[in-house]
Design goal:
Elements (H helix, E strand, L loop, with lengths): L6 E5 L4 H12 L3 E8 L6 H13 L3 E6 L33 H16 L3 E3 L15 H14 L1 H4 L5 E3 L7 H10 L24 H13 L11
């Protein structure tokens, strides 16, 4: 199917994975509408990164929507009283944000209906997901079935497809693909506790995965860190 002049909604957090997913959507020929979510996260530097990535990528439109997941709590990413772990942990870590991807996809789905877009891109990937349950292929497949049932477009036979092009890729594979597509990873922020200048801590789970990914991919890490 030709994607000329076909719109797509791309969830854009400002991190490495979502920037790569956006680049893939653009390569496939979609007209990209980027959606970022201010959900009360402590690492607001990601939203500044999302603005940079959206501008550099030439998206048709970039919107930032507000959802107060800090009001729910239950995560180190939304509750300042819960420390972000700097050592590997077992099981689902405290950085998991309850229902985050479900809510983000729901917002993207609503906007997609308005745009008459039939594709939503999300940069989840199961291999480097820290064990988050909403980064699994089963979740993406289930949400796509829900979208077909819950929308006018779906019941009229034009369901929205949830595109997760990174789902089975390692961080190194993602970095290689994004580099091929010209993604400026120096503009992205993945750290769970980046400072106000967007500098990464270099110790949290997200930083460790990112560091290891660049090392395995054989590329220099352009991330700005708070300490050498």
């Amino acid at each position: 199917m030709s994607t000329d002049a076909v719109p797509a909604v791309v969830l854009l957090s400002g991190g490495l994975d979502s920037a790569t997913a956006l680049a893939i959507a653009r390569e496939r020929g979609f007209i990209c509408h980027a959606l970022s979510v201010d959900y009360g996260q402590r690492h607001l530097a990601e939203l500044d990164a999302a603005r940079r990535v959206a501008r550099a990528s030439g998206v048709r439109e970039h919107r930032i929507m507000r959802v107060d997941l800090a009001g729910i709590g239950g995560s180190a990413l939304t509750d300042p009283a819960v420390a972000v772990p700097v050592e590997p942990t077992s099981g689902i870590p405290v950085t998991y944000v309850p229902a985050r991807n479900t809510l983000m996809l729901a917002l993207a789905l609503g906007w997609a209906e308005v745009l008459e877009a039939r594709h939503i891109f999300i940069g989840v990937n199961v291999l480097d997901s820290s064990g988050y349950p909403d980064c699994r292929a089963e979740f993406i497949e289930a949400f796509e079935r829900l979208a077909a049932l819950a929308t006018r477009a779906g019941v009229e036979g034009q369901p929205c497809h949830i595109e997760a092009p990174l789902i089975a890729m390692t961080k190194a594979e993602i970095i290689r693909e994004g580099t091929r597509l010209g993604v400026d990873y120096g503009a992205t922020v993945s750290c769970y506790q980046a400072d106000s200048q967007g500098r990464a801590c270099g110790r949290c789970d997200a930083c460790r995965l990112r560091l290891a990914g660049f090392d395995a991919a054989g590329f220099a890490d352009p991330t700005r860190y708070q300490r050498p």
